[in-house]
Amino acid sequence: MKNSLLIILLAIFSATVHAEGLALTGKVGSLGLGLELTKSYSEVFTSRLGFNAFNFSANTTQGTVNYDAKLKLQSMSALADWYPMQGAFRATGGLFYNNNKLSLNAIPTTPGVYSINGTPYALNSLQSDVTFNTVAPYLGVGWGNPAAHGKGWGLTSDFGVLLQGSPKVGMTATGPGAAAAQPAIDAERMRLQDSLRNFKLYPVATMGISYQW
Predict the structure, then answer these.
(1) Is residue 7 part of a domain?
(2) Would you give per-residue pLDDT tens digits along the chain (213 residues)?
(3) Is 25 within a domain?
(4) Structural domain total, the chain
(5) 184 — alpha (psi -120 to 50), left (phi > 0) or beta?
(6) What's 69's domain CATH number?
(7) Which residues constitute the domain of residue 86?
Protein backbone atom coordinates (compact mmCIF):
# COMPACT_ATOMS: atom_id res chain seq x y z
CA MET A 1 0.00 0.00 0.00
CA LYS A 2 2.82 2.40 0.92
CA ASN A 3 4.67 1.59 -2.31
CA SER A 4 1.51 2.24 -4.37
CA LEU A 5 0.98 5.58 -2.61
CA LEU A 6 4.62 6.52 -3.21
CA ILE A 7 4.30 5.70 -6.92
CA ILE A 8 1.16 7.86 -7.20
CA LEU A 9 2.85 10.79 -5.40
CA LEU A 10 5.93 10.48 -7.62
CA ALA A 11 3.72 10.46 -10.71
CA ILE A 12 1.93 13.60 -9.59
CA PHE A 13 5.24 15.29 -8.74
CA SER A 14 6.71 14.30 -12.11
CA ALA A 15 3.69 15.66 -13.99
CA THR A 16 3.93 18.93 -12.06
CA VAL A 17 7.68 19.29 -12.67
CA HIS A 18 7.20 18.78 -16.38
CA ALA A 19 4.27 21.18 -16.62
CA GLU A 20 4.44 23.00 -19.90
CA GLY A 21 3.44 26.38 -18.49
CA LEU A 22 0.58 28.82 -18.47
CA ALA A 23 -1.58 30.30 -21.20
CA LEU A 24 -4.06 33.15 -21.37
CA THR A 25 -6.99 32.95 -23.78
CA GLY A 26 -9.44 35.59 -24.93
CA LYS A 27 -12.76 34.05 -25.97
CA VAL A 28 -16.06 34.92 -27.63
CA GLY A 29 -19.16 32.77 -27.95
CA SER A 30 -22.51 31.84 -26.46
CA LEU A 31 -21.24 32.60 -22.92
CA GLY A 32 -20.30 36.15 -23.93
CA LEU A 33 -16.80 37.60 -23.92
CA GLY A 34 -14.35 35.69 -21.79
CA LEU A 35 -10.84 35.46 -20.41
CA GLU A 36 -9.33 32.13 -19.39
CA LEU A 37 -6.14 30.95 -17.67
CA THR A 38 -4.88 27.47 -18.59
CA LYS A 39 -2.34 25.43 -16.61
CA SER A 40 -0.67 22.33 -18.08
CA TYR A 41 0.27 19.35 -15.88
CA SER A 42 1.32 16.88 -18.57
CA GLU A 43 0.83 16.19 -22.26
CA VAL A 44 -2.66 14.88 -21.56
CA PHE A 45 -4.03 16.99 -18.67
CA THR A 46 -4.68 20.71 -18.22
CA SER A 47 -6.96 22.81 -16.00
CA ARG A 48 -8.65 26.12 -16.71
CA LEU A 49 -10.14 29.02 -14.75
CA GLY A 50 -12.28 31.49 -16.65
CA PHE A 51 -14.66 34.43 -16.49
CA ASN A 52 -17.34 35.34 -19.04
CA ALA A 53 -19.72 38.31 -19.31
CA PHE A 54 -21.97 40.11 -21.77
CA ASN A 55 -25.18 42.18 -21.71
CA PHE A 56 -27.79 42.20 -24.46
CA SER A 57 -31.14 44.01 -24.83
CA ALA A 58 -34.02 43.37 -27.23
CA ASN A 59 -37.79 43.45 -27.58
CA THR A 60 -39.49 40.06 -27.42
CA THR A 61 -42.88 38.41 -27.00
CA GLN A 62 -43.12 35.61 -24.43
CA GLY A 63 -46.43 34.00 -23.64
CA THR A 64 -49.04 36.69 -24.35
CA VAL A 65 -47.05 39.77 -23.30
CA ASN A 66 -44.55 42.01 -25.13
CA TYR A 67 -41.38 42.74 -23.16
CA ASP A 68 -38.24 44.80 -23.11
CA ALA A 69 -35.73 42.02 -22.41
CA LYS A 70 -32.27 42.35 -20.89
CA LEU A 71 -30.01 39.30 -20.92
CA LYS A 72 -27.11 39.38 -18.48
CA LEU A 73 -24.48 36.72 -19.10
CA GLN A 74 -22.02 36.33 -16.23
CA SER A 75 -20.22 33.14 -15.26
CA MET A 76 -17.00 31.75 -13.82
CA SER A 77 -15.63 28.35 -14.75
CA ALA A 78 -13.31 25.71 -13.28
CA LEU A 79 -12.59 23.06 -15.93
CA ALA A 80 -10.35 20.03 -16.44
CA ASP A 81 -9.19 18.93 -19.91
CA TRP A 82 -8.08 15.50 -21.07
CA TYR A 83 -6.17 15.08 -24.35
CA PRO A 84 -6.58 11.33 -25.04
CA MET A 85 -4.37 11.35 -28.14
CA GLN A 86 -1.84 13.88 -26.78
CA GLY A 87 -2.83 16.21 -29.59
CA ALA A 88 -5.24 19.07 -30.06
CA PHE A 89 -8.52 17.23 -29.38
CA ARG A 90 -9.75 17.36 -25.79
CA ALA A 91 -12.64 16.23 -23.61
CA THR A 92 -13.69 18.68 -20.89
CA GLY A 93 -15.64 18.53 -17.64
CA GLY A 94 -16.10 20.92 -14.75
CA LEU A 95 -18.31 23.38 -12.94
CA PHE A 96 -19.61 26.88 -13.59
CA TYR A 97 -20.70 29.54 -11.15
CA ASN A 98 -23.73 30.57 -13.18
CA ASN A 99 -25.02 34.10 -12.70
CA ASN A 100 -26.83 34.28 -16.05
CA LYS A 101 -30.13 36.18 -15.74
CA LEU A 102 -32.96 37.39 -17.94
CA SER A 103 -34.97 40.48 -16.91
CA LEU A 104 -38.26 41.26 -18.66
CA ASN A 105 -40.18 44.53 -18.35
CA ALA A 106 -43.63 44.36 -19.93
CA ILE A 107 -44.52 47.01 -22.51
CA PRO A 108 -47.93 48.66 -21.84
CA THR A 109 -50.49 48.68 -24.65
CA THR A 110 -51.37 52.26 -23.58
CA PRO A 111 -49.91 54.27 -20.69
CA GLY A 112 -50.91 52.54 -17.44
CA VAL A 113 -52.66 49.62 -19.19
CA TYR A 114 -51.07 46.17 -19.70
CA SER A 115 -52.63 43.39 -21.73
CA ILE A 116 -52.32 39.88 -20.27
CA ASN A 117 -53.84 37.08 -22.34
CA GLY A 118 -55.90 39.68 -24.18
CA THR A 119 -57.37 41.28 -21.04
CA PRO A 120 -56.36 44.87 -20.11
CA TYR A 121 -55.31 45.67 -16.52
CA ALA A 122 -54.50 49.01 -14.89
CA LEU A 123 -50.91 48.54 -13.72
CA ASN A 124 -47.89 50.69 -13.04
CA SER A 125 -45.45 47.91 -14.00
CA LEU A 126 -45.22 44.21 -14.84
CA GLN A 127 -41.78 42.67 -14.42
CA SER A 128 -40.28 39.22 -14.59
CA ASP A 129 -36.88 37.77 -13.67
CA VAL A 130 -35.54 34.44 -14.92
CA THR A 131 -32.68 32.72 -13.10
CA PHE A 132 -31.02 29.30 -13.16
CA ASN A 133 -29.03 27.05 -10.82
CA THR A 134 -26.06 28.92 -9.39
CA VAL A 135 -23.75 25.89 -9.70
CA ALA A 136 -23.95 24.18 -13.10
CA PRO A 137 -21.95 21.16 -14.36
CA TYR A 138 -20.37 21.38 -17.81
CA LEU A 139 -19.50 18.64 -20.32
CA GLY A 140 -17.96 19.22 -23.72
CA VAL A 141 -15.22 18.71 -26.24
CA GLY A 142 -12.76 21.13 -27.79
CA TRP A 143 -9.75 21.70 -29.98
CA GLY A 144 -6.41 23.24 -29.15
CA ASN A 145 -4.01 23.03 -26.21
CA PRO A 146 -3.16 26.63 -25.25
CA ALA A 147 -0.50 25.59 -22.71
CA ALA A 148 1.41 23.07 -24.85
CA HIS A 149 5.20 23.38 -24.81
CA GLY A 150 6.40 26.12 -27.14
CA LYS A 151 2.88 26.94 -28.24
CA GLY A 152 3.11 30.73 -28.35
CA TRP A 153 0.01 32.01 -30.12
CA GLY A 154 -2.81 29.60 -30.90
CA LEU A 155 -6.50 29.09 -31.63
CA THR A 156 -8.94 27.18 -29.43
CA SER A 157 -12.57 26.13 -29.58
CA ASP A 158 -15.11 24.59 -27.20
CA PHE A 159 -18.44 22.89 -27.85
CA GLY A 160 -20.57 21.54 -25.04
CA VAL A 161 -23.55 21.95 -22.79
CA LEU A 162 -24.10 23.71 -19.47
CA LEU A 163 -26.52 21.80 -17.24
CA GLN A 164 -28.06 24.86 -15.57
CA GLY A 165 -31.40 23.36 -14.56
CA SER A 166 -34.97 24.44 -15.24
CA PRO A 167 -35.55 28.21 -15.30
CA LYS A 168 -36.92 29.83 -12.17
CA VAL A 169 -39.39 32.54 -13.18
CA GLY A 170 -40.69 35.27 -10.90
CA MET A 171 -43.30 37.81 -12.00
CA THR A 172 -44.55 40.84 -10.08
CA ALA A 173 -46.98 43.67 -10.82
CA THR A 174 -47.69 47.01 -9.16
CA GLY A 175 -50.61 49.37 -9.55
CA PRO A 176 -54.34 49.61 -8.77
CA GLY A 177 -55.23 46.52 -10.82
CA ALA A 178 -52.49 44.25 -9.44
CA ALA A 179 -54.80 42.23 -7.15
CA ALA A 180 -57.41 41.68 -9.88
CA ALA A 181 -54.66 40.71 -12.35
CA GLN A 182 -52.97 38.18 -10.04
CA PRO A 183 -54.65 35.02 -11.47
CA ALA A 184 -53.74 36.14 -15.01
CA ILE A 185 -50.19 36.98 -13.84
CA ASP A 186 -49.78 33.51 -12.30
CA ALA A 187 -50.95 31.89 -15.54
CA GLU A 188 -48.60 34.10 -17.56
CA ARG A 189 -45.68 33.19 -15.31
CA MET A 190 -46.35 29.49 -15.94
CA ARG A 191 -46.55 30.09 -19.71
CA LEU A 192 -43.25 31.96 -19.61
CA GLN A 193 -41.58 29.24 -17.57
CA ASP A 194 -42.84 26.58 -19.99
CA SER A 195 -41.61 28.54 -23.03
CA LEU A 196 -38.08 28.65 -21.52
CA ARG A 197 -37.90 25.03 -20.36
CA ASN A 198 -35.43 24.03 -23.09
CA PHE A 199 -32.82 26.37 -21.63
CA LYS A 200 -32.14 23.97 -18.75
CA LEU A 201 -29.47 22.69 -21.15
CA TYR A 202 -27.56 25.75 -22.34
CA PRO A 203 -25.47 25.21 -25.49
CA VAL A 204 -21.87 26.39 -25.30
CA ALA A 205 -19.86 27.25 -28.40
CA THR A 206 -16.76 29.45 -28.13
CA MET A 207 -13.70 30.42 -30.13
CA GLY A 208 -10.53 31.89 -28.68
CA ILE A 209 -7.04 33.20 -29.27
CA SER A 210 -4.42 32.07 -26.77
CA TYR A 211 -0.85 32.93 -25.82
CA GLN A 212 1.43 30.57 -23.89
CA TRP A 213 4.50 31.60 -21.94
Answers:
(1) no
(2) 545 545 544 554 444 444 458 999 999 999 999 999 999 998 899 999 999 999 999 888 776 788 899 999 999 999 999 999 988 999 999 999 999 999 999 899 888 899 888 889 999 999 999 999 999 999 999 999 999 888 899 999 999 999 999 999 999 999 999 999 999 999 989 988 888 888 899 999 999 999 997
(3) yes
(4) 1
(5) alpha
(6) 2.40.160.170
(7) 20-212
